[in-house]
Amino acid sequence: MSLIPAELSSFELPTPTEEHRQLRDMLVEFVRDEVEPQAEEHNQTETFNWPLFRRMGELGLFGVTVPEEAGGTGMDSTAACLVCEELSFADAGLGLAWLAHTLLFVNNLYFNGNEDQRSRYLPRAISGEWLAGMCMTEPAAGTDVPGGLACKAVRQGDVYLLNGEKTLITNGSRDEQTPGDVFIVYALTGTGLSSFIVESRFAGFSVGQRFHGKLGMRSSATASLVFEDCRVPVENILGAEGESPQHMMRNLEIERLGLAAQSLGMARRSLRAMTTYAMQRRAFGQPINRFGQVQFHIAESYAEYRAARAYVYDVARQLVLGEMGHRLDCDGAKLFAAHMAKRVADRAIQVLGGYGYFGEYVVERMWRDAKLIEIGGGTVEAHQKNITKDLTKALERDPQGRFL
After folding, report:
1. Which of 12, 100, 124, 358 could bridge 170 with an S-S bond, Cβ 3.0-4.6 Å?
2. Superfamily of the domain at 6-131
3. Distances (CA, A) of 265 to 109, 182, 201, 295, 340
């Protein structure tokens, strides 16, 4: 007789409720039927599939972290991770575009904006009518935000004049001619770091460059955006001047967790590919999964994937949207998952041998895409710094380390 209650033994971190299971099932079907068939073409052409992206709006995927009364589906961090993982199983670039649109704009605006801003912008973003993103990185400033920023906003009457350049912006453009529609832009004001809702139709807004030749995530559109006396209405500032460090840190937690979940999707795809290939490929008269070297690659990859999966969804279970306080483990989950996904993809290439080096077998794309998670949303070095700093503070408060 089991001593574990049935409700506990049947509980799964990635799908804790029936609603989450239904979301996962819908995503699996959508990815199989609509995302997978187009993934390699858009990887090769480095193009963003705008019609398919809008289809995700029809499915309600852009509002998973927003309450129903604001037009969303009223779910949680676990739901956001489910979307990131399943999309990235087939097309991590499309998953990154979803993350920038949903977590960096929609979620950010809902928790940091006011009712007027929500009513004006959330319906178009959640429906998929508009393409949205967030602008933080600059040509000379990345990890050193806000101290290294040069982008400035100066109030003149009923507008702010925004000047500067943002670069490496996901969803910065739809194609070579068409910019994204709306962005949350971080800029320095007289009282510190502030953030603004900026539409691409505002005077003084332009796309500086649409980037090509990326190592990975090629199906997401990356661009630089230029602001030259860009006229931003005063009512488009999020909160008050100087409040944006709190906005940024609050949203970084779910962003980093979403990126960690992307790693899970890429690792799972690589694991499936190498295991399937090792069952079918024969050498010296037997399947290559009989050989110890191949077994090492498969077994280590599975164990690491499962460990990362448990970590990511355990953090998701605890993360309350709109609140801060989980930086330690959001950074930790992304740090571990990022390295894990690249290792698993690398092992998959090794198991497939020469075939793994070609795009037809997908794993080389997973390896290229996985690298971004070690850089984007905070570098692994930044996570290592943050984790050490947070652990030091926690041990000063609790020398026995009971929180560990």
Report:
1. 100
2. Acyl-CoA dehydrogenase/oxidase, N-terminal domain (1.10.540.10)
3. 27, 28, 36, 21, 11
DSSP for 229-263? EEEEEGGGBSSSTT-HHHHHHHHHHHHHHHHHHHH
Domain definitions of the chain by residue range = 6-131, 133-236, 244-397
Render the burial of 106-125: b for 16+ CB within 10 Å, e for the rest.
bbbbbbbbeeebbebbbebb
Cα–Cα distance for residue pair 355/43, rounded to 1 Å: 18
* Pairing outcome for strands 286-287 and 282-283: antiparallel
Task: Provide mean pLDDT across the span 3-25.
Answer: 83
Q: Which residue bears the tokens 């944006």?
A: 244
The rounded mean pLDDT for the chain is: 95
Considering only the C-alpha atoms of the chain, give the largest distance between any 2 of them, rounded to a whole number of Å.
80
- Polymer length in residues for the chain: 404
Phi/psi for 291 (5° steps) reads -95, 140
Please, which residues have CB within 8 angstroms of residue 208's CB and are 6 or more apart in sequence?
Answer: 165, 167, 223, 224, 225, 226
CATH topology of domain 244-397: Butyryl-CoA Dehydrogenase, subunit A; domain 3 (1.20.140)
Q: What does the pLDDT read at residue 5?
A: 67
Upstream peptide bond of 146 is cis (omega within 30 degrees of 0): yes
The mean per-residue pLDDT over the stretch 319-330 comes to 92
Query: Quick one: pLDDT band at residue 256, thresholds 50, 70, 90?
Result: very high
255 in catalytic set: yes
Q: Which of 255, 304, 364, 374 is catalytic?
A: 255
Q: What is the pTM of this model?
A: 0.95
Instruction: Give dist(CA 58, CA 129) in Å, integer.
Output: 10
Share of the chain above pLDDT 70, in %: 97
CATH of domain 133-236: 2.40.110.10
Indicate whether 4 pLDDT > 80.
no
